[in-house]
Every structure is written in structure tokens, then in C-alpha cells.
């Protein structure tokens, strides 16, 4: 159907709505509505031009509609975009780096008698783990940015979580002070996951695993340390490195399950592309 | 019905639009056109706002966490579909309860004296 009247309306509405973050999404949504109305009228036997007129009359004057939009805060809605699949790659890549970190540090801890963790034979394994940790945290942060974009917004909690994740990336440069970066990332993933669950878009189990993994690991670590009677909030190594690594492993394995689930979901998303003109481009 | 009554009805409708939209989405996800159409049909054409003014309400409900939306491509057009979140269902339940209490109270006041 040639939709001259609808196209003219959308052009006027775009001008009236002005500089809102989501102006393209508003126009696309309105276009879908107007075409749906006109098509319904046409199916009832109304002449096409008259059908468009009815659609526009029922929708309201552009200035009235724009004024209604001006009463709410401008914000981006949830939409899979071309960056969504990249976020999936980052999540999956992060999962791999986390597993490499765990493997390297277990190798470092098990290859020398307890107390000799700085011996030459496993220093390389520790360094590999430390570098891999940086990769894991950087990619996880990038994945979290992508998840935020996918959801449009994760609210205040999600924003705080993202901030903590950024600090956690910096903290991971000091791999030996694992309580520091692990705590930051625990809070970061928890808050981002809470923001995601509120939107109810991402897969539920993957989100819970992502947000709760490090928390479960911390609880396990606490229980193990209380059993030994030693609560040292400092480094990863020392005589209690086994309890530290066990707690970290439990947490990271659950986190990895979450990252893989979210990564696969993001990779499966079809990007929706909205042309900036008033004609829609399909995905 | 006079102009004053029509104006009052419009104001009453605006004041309860959140509740009405949440209720139309209670039986499943819908895009904006379908939600507005359901509102009109279920009200017996009593509620007939300019349709364009409903979309900001949907966006506000989504920003408040009561709805979530997602996009798809249907017949070459991008379509935004809304559904209730857990918070939305809880809010709908609470608002329904509040409305029932209000309606009962109003009915009591308006009842003809015995």
C-alpha cells in the first residue's frame, strides 16, 4: 500500500518529537501501529487513502503525541543490535579465560609443596593465570556493557554494577590480592544480574548463574576458611591456598556457566536495524 | 452526555490508564496496537483515547520495570512487543485490589438511601 499520508505524518512526528535518544524507535513503533490500523481498515473494505486518514485521526495530532512523549524521560528501549552478537563473543571469550586462569593457578599450586609457591617451576603458571585473569575480567566487562545495551538500560543497580566491574578490572591487575578483585566482581555481577532479571529478557538460569556464581563461591570460601579457623582477607597463596582456590573454583565455574549461557543467547539474537529515514529496513 | 461528563470520563480514564494497560497485558504479550485494541474492545468502546498518547504510558511502565519489551521484524516492519514483568503482575494485583476497594466505597456513597 502506498502510504503517503502515513509517511508525511511520520516525518512531522519526527520533527515534533525532536532530539530524544529513542526517536528512531518511537517512529518505528508508530509506523507499525499506523500501518496495522490502515491495513485493518482496508481489510474491512475501506478505500486505502481513507484507511490511512482513519489511522491518523485515531492516533492523534503529531504535536499532541509529541507532547505526551515529552512528559517521560528519554531512554533507549531493549533491542538486539549489531553489537549484541559481539557481546556474546566477549562473554564466551571471558568464560574461556576464566577456565584458563583456574587451570593455571591449580597447576601453580599443585606443582610445588605447600609453602613454596614462588618456586621457578610454577611461577610461569601463576603468571599465565594472572594474565588470563586480566583477559577474563576485561572481556566480562565488555560483555556486561553489551548486555546493558541489549537491555536498553539496567537501571541504577546495573549502572553501579558496571562501575564496580570497571574497578574490578583494574583490581585484577593485582591478581594476588584476590579478595579485592573477587569482591568487586562479585558485587558487579550480582547487581548487573539483578538489573537484568528485572527486565526479564535474558534467559533466567544463565542470569542467575552469572549473578550468583561468585557469591556462592564466596560463601563456600567463607565456610572453608571458618572450618580451618583462619580468616585471612589478603592473598591467594600461602598455607591456605587450597581453600582459597576451592572457593574461587566453585564461584568461577558457576560464573562460567552463566557466561556461556548468556553468550550463546546473545549470539543467537537477530539484530534489528531501524533505518533513520521513515522507511523501515528489515533485519 | 454533556461536554463536562465527557471531560470527566477522559480524566478518570487517564488516571487509571496504567492499571488498564497492565490488565490488557495480563493474558499475554502484545504490541502497542494490539494492547490498545484490546483496551477498546474489552471496554465496549467506552475507552477511546488518541492512540498515540498511550505509547508514552507503555514506555513509562517499561522504564518503571512493570513491563519489558522486545523487538522483532513482522512483515518487513519492526514491531515492539510488551509483556508484564513480575513487578508488573504484582502492581496489577495491588491496583486491582485498590480499585475494588475504591469501587465498593463509591458504590456505598452513591447507593440510594433506604
What can you see in these coordinates?
- The complex is a heterodimer of chains A (283) and B (114).
- Chain A has 283 residues and is an all-alpha fold.
- Chain A is built from ten helices and no strands.
- In chain A, helix 2 (23-43) packs across helix 3.
- By secondary structure, chain B is α+β, with helices and mostly antiparallel strands.
- Chain B is 59% helix and 16% strand.
- Chain B has helices at residues 3-15, 17-24, 32-42, 54-63, 86-110, and strands at 30-31, 67-74, 77-84.
- In chain B, strands 1-3-2 form a three-stranded antiparallel β-sheet.
- The longest helix of chain B is centred in the C-terminal third of the chain and has 25 residues, at 86-110.
- Mean pLDDT of chain B is 85; it is low at 1-6.
- At the A-B interface, helix 2 and helix 4 of A face helix 3, helix 4, strand 2 and strand 3 of B.
Briefly summarize what is shown.
The complex is a heterodimer of chains A (283) and B (114). With 283 residues, chain A is mainly α. In chain A, 73% of the residues lie in helices and 0% in strands.
